[in-house]
Amino acid sequence: MFIKWFFLIIFFAVMIACGFFARRKTKSISDFVLGGRNVGPWMSAFAYGTAYFSAVVFVGYAGQFGWRYGISASWIGIGNALLGSLLAWVVLGRRTRIMTNHLFSATMPDFFGKRYNSKNLTLVASAIIFIFLVPYTASVYNGLSRLFEMAFGMPFMYCVIGMAALTAAYVILGGYLATAINDFIQGIIMLIGIVVIIGSVLASEGGLTESLTKLSFVNGAAEEGIRQAGVFTSFFGPDPVGLISVIILTSLGTWGLPQMIHKFYAIKSEKAITTGTVVSTVFAIIIAGGSYFLGGFARLFDSPAIHKDGGGIIFDAIIPSMLANMSDIVIAVTIVLVLSASMSTLASLVITSSSTMTLDFLRRLYKKEPTEKVQLLLMRLLIVFFILVSVVFAINPPTFIAQMMGISWGALAGAFLAPFLYGLYWKKATKTAVWACFAFGVGLTVSNMFLHYIPSSITAGAIAIVGGLLVLPVVSVLSKKPEPEYVENIFSCYEETVTVHKAHSLEE
After folding, report:
1. Domain extents for the chain?
2. CA angle at residue 377 from 372 to 378, to 5 degrees?
């Protein structure tokens, strides 16, 4: 127990120290929300990666999809790296930084309002973000519950309150810069931790080859309809269609999540884009690929602890059960890893939510533009409010909220991905088409939560994301075109001339 507490105390002390350090450099709204658009390449890359992966991925998704798909779940991690990280930086990184800077936009709702010339889009988008980030934040807390109960015998409530208080402290102190510094430190912890954990778990089963051999003899339960041996070590697993849905939701979905896109707003330079692309991709391969690869061996650790009394699997208990018999050092490393993953994601979520509500919603209620000091105060108060609401839902989640956690990504990405992507590249995207995407993405995922006409919320989210990419161009063609002069002014930012050294570009 001493080893576990020692790791935790050191971790907490470093986080708070980063908050005090960043506070000295956080003087304005731009500093608090975007780090003054001056965040270096490595911190940008780690900020993206650590916001991407939380306890939801390591504990919930890795256990759930590893159990369902076996080793083929590793494809999810590969998709996260190539589609959710590499391609996201290549397609969105530079254009997002250029256009949002040109529009003086600090949030995704503000981007929608200025890009499509509609204040109402800003208000509705900010409401969607707040509504669907709360359950996602609560799910981040829930991912820690069984690990802390296993390691410390500590009630979940104390864990949630402690993590919430610590995150609120360093985010309120230093804003985005404190978050970015901590993300870098937490990212390094995650990289070391996942290697240690995978090695320890496989060693407990005789190594990689022996673990794969044992897994190849495992049959699924009869009620799962998976009777044949070897299916959990096959290339695409027992359910390729379900696997593809998960890859789409967890990889392409990041393109429309405000807390992920926010990282591109704060890019400092061209070097930050190049480095960020490479580093975040490698980070995703190790963290996501490692997590899902680890989860692929879940059925080797089948025990009564992961089965419900009335039948069925407790997916959140799978990873903790795999680690239950590990050494104290490994368990301590796991706790710090999952805390790092969760707190980095949580910090990103509260920054996104508080800045959105302040800059895009509450500020518009003032007759006169509030001072920066007032707006910073509002953001800090909203950080506390947002964390309190998410803690309440995490400790006592109503049934509909528990269901809502699974559709948060689908609703947000389904509503926002197409308007944001087309908004960066296509001049003919219309305001009406954006409204159609909002209605389609949120409407599909929420209605399916109650009516269940699509069996899986994962599949529903994937359909919402892909469907939005079709809805926007179709509605844009059929609806009133935007004013040419207004659109040309927005896209003029891409035509500005910059001077570079010959070492980077040869003259013709």
Report:
1. 2-397
2. 95
What distance in Å separates the CA atoms of residue 191 and residue 344, rounded to the nearest whole number?
14
113, 116, 118, 119 alpha-carbon torsion, rounded to 10°: 0
**Reduced DSSP (H G I as helix, E B as strand, rest coil) percent helix, strand, coil of the chain, to 5:** 80, 0, 20
Q: What is d(CA 101, CA 112) in angstroms, rounded to the nearest whole number?
A: 14
Question: At the fourth CATH level, which superfamily is domain 2-397?
Answer: Sodium/glucose cotransporter (1.20.1730.10)
Structure pTM?
0.85
Quote the CA–CA distance of 313 and 64 in Å, as a whole number: 9
The residues, ordered by sequence, that sit 6+ positions from 450 with a Cβ below 8 Å of its Cβ are none
CB 121 within 8 A of CB 288: no
Closest listed residue to residue 178, CA positions, set 82, 296, 283, 34:
34
Closest residue by Cα to residue 346 from 465, 182, 197: 182
Cβ 122 vs Cβ 112: under 8 Å: yes
How far is 395 from 108, CA to CA, in rounded Å? Answer: 29
Q: What is the rounded distance in angstroms from the CA atom of residue 37 to the CA atom of residue 18? A: 18
Per-residue pLDDT of the chain (508 residues; tens, 9 = 90+): 677 777 778 877 877 787 777 777 767 676 666 665 666 677 777 778 877 877 678 877 888 899 989 999 999 999 999 999 999 999 999 999 999 989 988 888 889 999 999 989 988 998 898 888 877 777 777 666 666 666 666 777 777 787 778 877 877 777 777 777 777 787 888 888 888 889 988 998 888 999 999 988 887 765 566 666 788 888 888 888 889 988 998 899 899 988 888 888 877 777 778 888 998 999 999 989 999 999 999 889 888 878 877 677 788 778 888 887 777 788 777 777 777 777 777 777 777 777 777 766 666 666 677 777 777 788 888 888 888 887 887 777 655 554 566 678 889 999 999 999 999 999 999 999 999 999 999 999 999 988 889 888 888 989 999 999 999 999 999 999 999 999 999 999 998 887 777 666 555 5
| Alpha-carbon 59 to chain mean position | 14
In 10 A of CB 191, how many CB atoms?
Answer: 18
Place of tokens 């410390």: 152
| Residue 292 CB-density burial (10 A; 0-12 exposed, 13-18 middle, 19+ buried) | buried
